[in-house]
Amino acid sequence: MLSKLYLYIVHSIFLLFYKKEYKKYMNSRNISEIQENKLKEILKNNKDTLYGKKYNFDKIKTIQDFQKEVPLSKYEDYLPYIEKIKMGEEHILTYEKVKIFELTSGSTSASKLIPYTDSLKKEFQSGIKVWLYSLYKKYPSLKFGKSYWSITPKVDFQHKENSVIPIGFEEDSEYFGRFEKYLVDSIFVNSKDIKNEKDMDKFYFKTLLALVSEKNIRLFSFWSPTLLLLLMEYLEKNSEKILKTLNKKRREEVRKYIKTKEYYKIWKDLKLISCWGDSNSTEYLKKIKEIFPNTVIQEKGLLATEGFISFPDTEENLSKLSIYSHFFEFLSLDNNGIYNASEIEINKRYELIITTSGGLYRYCIGDIIEVISIKNKVPYIKFIGRRGAISDLFGEKLEENFLKNIMETYKQKIDFYMFAPSKNHYVLFIKTDKKINIEDIESKLRENFHYDYCRKLGQLKKIKLFILTGNPEREYIEACQNKNQKLGNIKMTALSKESGWENIFNGYFQESEDK
């Protein structure tokens, strides 16, 4: 077991690399200049690319020039360029070499290939360094213990495209610098071969074995809180299989806490859990707080495969725009106007537009944020949801927030729910200990004019209820993994736009009472 002094020394050396970046952020005042310089740097580096020549990067002198010359873009606009990069052509989107394609699928089954360069990785690091330095500054006791950072297992992804550029996932630890990664690897709690584990049952087992074997864990870093909940459930159901691998003293100690469901006592020095807390993660976060009542829960900032958007400010307990990472624009949901980071307003909602060193230019990422506050001219933002989280089979335009508001009217305990379309109706997949009145759900849905109109026309049939009997969170996560989503990117949703979930979830259709 590593001594606490050794851990403290390693952490201290590690954080020395991040102090400069932290101070730079803390002393930032002129956000307009910072953002304009970032944009000019990206354009200068990529002016001699195929994309840069097409949109006259070399003639762009101001943000206004950039917005005039370069159109807003979505992923489909990049497909011809991605094809060229896959074939080994260079200087297409970036002058710098593409090192890897990151897979992402969002809410659809089609995979997207996001090009990664060393410069893009540095843009991610720019925000990560500030977050970590501020985290250890706020909670110095973290330096005396070990940390668990979530790992993405190498399940059998169904991606079979031909590409001379590797297609895969960058692990969380890859966002550290080379020397820092060497240091943090010595203080991480992870099974050595866990990255290569393809079987999810073995993944959970090996992860928990590593976790319960180590008493001195101070930090848990997950993306989705559901993963931690699934681990605790697996620990309870498979406790004896895991416990028999421990020494006698630790075995009896952990067994006692599992029996009493006092999981927080397994890691008595656990100081902080970092995970998502916005949007659909809110309810799962509440469960985490119940399981670990004495642990600080810090909500993560907003991070996408395409870019690093924000990081938690430990002093403000809010998510701070990572102004040195990329060039940001904001599309107003009020008037469709486009604003720079220095122009957005408190309590307003915007869709994010990013320009990065990975070759995405004025890319509409689809994430909706709300500006919570502005301090020292830097915006603090909150993730609200995805733009386009709407299902529209026949013009009914069912929107995710509308469905969430319907379910919030129920005071009973609901463990999981998700709406999804079928051929000519919708299905509510739900796990609860009380009976749900499907007529009440239907009535609330028909308060939506477009849904009601489709029902009157006979285009849509009445909603059906699918009672979940298994572990829907785990079943959902594994289904997303099979569609090429990285474990760390999977978020629970109240509305899936895909059909066929009755073939994935364990459960049964509840018969309608009018039959």
UniProtKB/TrEMBL annotation:
Transmembrane segment boundaries: none
GO molecular function, one term: acid-amino acid ligase activity
Domain (GH3 middle): residue spans on this chain: 322-386
Top-level taxon of origin: Bacteria
Pfam assignment, any one: GH3_M
GO CC field: cytoplasm
Name of the featured protein: GH3 middle domain-containing protein
